[in-house]
């Protein structure tokens, strides 16, 4: 009933334990708190909270318009609805190193298990678009040092994302990844890798977990979980996929409604009321107050 039973500290501790095994952990992107529960119900390892989804959800482009308050608030709503660890996209950290420090504390207080901070200049853009710019090494490292110093729970995973590969090439990404780890990053998110070989090269260069971003219609081929596990990737995200699927289905349903005047033909594609109630755990609320769920639902 209500929110997750696992405390944020416990989620972080368990997440660290799972990461230490070296296995691949699968983190689909939740586009709302409810979809985080679906991700948990289907047996995934964690929930990713995407900046691209957060901004798209507000009808905004992913160019750093969302504020720390909005991101931490939404991340909290999502993270507290699942027993799984949740990682949030903190973009560039919302400002200078002092702002990054505050970002980390807000996100920690919001109950997240981890976050990533990238080395793009502001205004940032989707890592899979052309024309990105990255900050110099000392600025990039300054962000990570500030993040690491600011956390109060040592288990909060501070991941450094580098977008430099698309600007200066793979060797530059490897150099930067090593420096980010030296600055205290617990994990590396090498953005816009083009091949499994590139993931493998980053894997060989650093001694911390690495993340693969399997976003669609971007620069990376869509590798399977097995392919990514085979090259030693530790976390894979499908950041925007569920939103794309849901919006695609919503668009087609609206077309049907226009054409046929009814959604009867779409019923089989819909989440059934009974499944929705199960996901929300009406039964649990009923144990608290037996008048909540005293009806039946026909399938
Ligand atoms: C991972 C990402 O940062 C996100 O916000 O989800 C995006 C995803 C996308 O725009 O497809 C990214 O920059 O890769
Ligand atoms: Mg993003």
UniProtKB/TrEMBL annotation:
Keywords assigned by UniProt, alphabetized: Lyase, Magnesium, Metal-binding
What are the protein's GO molecular function terms? metal ion binding; methylisocitrate lyase activity
One Gene Ontology BP term is: propionate catabolic process, 2-methylcitrate cycle
Highest taxon listed in the record's lineage: Bacteria
What's the Enzyme Commission number for this chain?
Answer: 4.1.3.30
Which reactions fall under this protein's catalytic activity? 3-hydroxybutane-1,2,3-tricarboxylate = pyruvate + succinate; (2S,3R)-3-hydroxybutane-1,2,3-tricarboxylate = pyruvate + succinate
What name does UniProt use for this protein? Methylisocitrate lyase
């Amino acid at each position: 009933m209500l929110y997750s039973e696992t405390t944020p500290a416990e989620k972080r501790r368990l997440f660290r334990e799972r990461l230490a095994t070296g296995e691949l952990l699968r983190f689909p992107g939740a586009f709302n708190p409810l979809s985080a529960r679906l991700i948990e119900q289907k047996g995934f390892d964690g929930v990713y909270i995407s900046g691209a989804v957060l901004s798209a959800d507000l009808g905004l482009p992913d160019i750093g318009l969302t504020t720390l308050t909005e991101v931490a608030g939404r991340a909290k709503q999502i993270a507290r609805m699942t027993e799984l660890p949740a990682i949030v996209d903190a973009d560039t950290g919302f400002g200078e190193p002092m702002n990054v420090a505050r970002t980390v504390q807000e996100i920690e207080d919001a109950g997240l298990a981890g976050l990533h901070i990238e080395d793009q200049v502001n205004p940032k853009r989707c890592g899979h678009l052309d024309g990105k710019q990255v900050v110099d090494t000392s600025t990039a490292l300054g962000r990570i040092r500030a993040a690491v110093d600011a956390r109060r729970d040592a288990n909060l995973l501070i991941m450094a994302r580098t977008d430099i590969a698309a600007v200066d090439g793979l060797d530059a990404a490897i150099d930067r990844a090593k420096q980010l780890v030296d600055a205290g990053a617990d994990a590396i998110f090498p953005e816009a890798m083009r091949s499994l070989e590139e993931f493998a090269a980053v894997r060989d260069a650093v001694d911390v977990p690495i993340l693969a971003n399997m976003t669609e219609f971007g620069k990376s081929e869509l590798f399977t979980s097995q392919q990514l596990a085979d090259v030693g990737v530790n976390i894979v995200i499908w950041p925007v996929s569920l939103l794309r699927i849901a919006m695609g289905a919503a668009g087609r349903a609206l077309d049907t409604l226009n054409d046929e005047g009814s959604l009867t033909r779409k019923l089989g594609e819909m989440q059934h009321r009974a499944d929705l109630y199960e996901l929300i755990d009406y039964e649990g609320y009923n144990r608290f107050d037996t008048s909540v769920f005293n009806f039946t639902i026909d399938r």
